[in-house]
Amino acid sequence: MTDGSLRGARCALLLLLHPENLIAADNTDAAAKTVTDRFSEAKYIKALAMHALAEAHSHDAAIDNLKTHVSAWELAAAKTEDLNEKVCFLLQEKGARSLETTAKDAEDLKQKTSRLLEVLNSRYGAVMALLKTKQAISTQATTTTAAHGSQTQCQQILTVSSDGDAGCDFRDVSATGPIKSAPINLAQAKALKLLAKQDLKPNILTIKTYVKGTLGNINQAYENGKCKDRATGTSDFIKIDVETTKSAGPSDVPDTPLYETKDGTNKCKEINDRSQKTHMDNEIIANSVCNYKTATRPQPLNPSELSESTITTDEESLRLAATLLPSVGAAPTLNDAQKKQELKNKLKKIYGTESKDMQRDFVTALQTLSGTYHGGTKYHSDKIINIAKNSNTNKALIWLTAQKVEAKDAIAPQSATNKGEECKIHKPQKTCEEKGCKWKGMTDTEGTCETKPV
User: Fold this and answer.
1) Highest taxon of the source (predicted)?
2) Can you tell me whether residue 38 is helix, strand or coil?
3) What does DSSP assign to residue 268?
4) Rg of the chain's alpha carbons, rounded to an integer?
5) Contact 419, 99 (CB under 8 A)
6) What is the DSSP string of 324-388?
7) Over the chain, what is the mean pLDDT?
8) Strand 226-229 vs strand 235-245: parallel, antiparallel, or unpaired?
9) Fewer C-beta neighbours within 10 Å, C or N terminus of the chain?
10) How does pLDDT run across 359-386, given as a tens digit for each residue?
């Protein structure tokens, strides 16, 4: 996407993003495009928003979908930077093919991924605004531009909030402006208003575009977020109406208490018939939140600040230290033999007395715990087991000792067409039970771990 077309797309989204920051850039755009061209990007933005909403059951879930979508492409783009690695990846995914053909496919994939990531990131902010929009405009939308001829009708009022309002419902805009939703204060919450998955339906998102005036006046259409009134008494503007219509479903949901109903108690409410409830049940969710609130936990450890003095007798701190310390090259190590033994004993207590038990349970933890790492420009969060599989493992703040794969343990199998090339496979000497064999493409073959095509 060119810089000019990006500014043209932003022109059509002035009130959804931050008009005071974008007006100046839009004014510098050469007036060589038609108004129709300027709105072409809006169709793709709507499509991306609808894609994020497709499988979601709330706007917040849709936002999570969008973030996941963007993060996945960023990881894919980072992976394509190493062309040799991508060749191996394609060989593994698609089976043995000629190295020359695979190298060409890898280069094509690299270019395509780079272009897609550029476009996706340019649309990210706009789609995020659409998904967070709780109110649309100060007047009802109509099908004609004539009804939007005045300054007050042209102005849009948006409330961006990811919290939702008290009734989990769409609120009308009042004469004095939209009523902002009160954020949830988890520390003080005694009950939560939750919706079971089967009861929650996504809102219907509609985007309507209105244009009034000529191309020569379009770039001056807005001033401080409002329609600029000309001497003739009319206004030129570019306008997008974003409407969210609540789908058929329950409009009010009773509060789900976190604690027992007795006054002054901080005991989490007991769950009846737990075995008959799913993880999406309101009582299960509320109980999980309550347990999180009432649990005592140490302060998170910063791997860059770790030293022997920070290793306490607290099990969670020891566990964090064991996983975080090796992840930073310059970080201090546990030189004290007594501390090492203490750490080892604590870890055995957590994961089991046998080495194989510790590794097995550790792998199980990796499949459920999440971690954060820096991808070069921003932080990413993912399941720890997934972090180990992407090319950003060396940037992670979590070191997967039970899952570590050396570079020589090649990414793809050696095939008949690529012998002697970069993608040779080296069988580890350790048995599968010792090594784990949990990562993608690894199977148990005669007691050793061997990479297999997927």
Assistant:
1) Eukaryota
2) helix
3) B
4) 28
5) no
6) HGGGSTTS-----HHHHHHHHHHHHHHH-SSHHHHHHHHHHHHTT-EEEEE-SSSEEEEEHHHHT
7) 48
8) antiparallel
9) C
10) 454 455 556 656 555 555 566 667 655 6
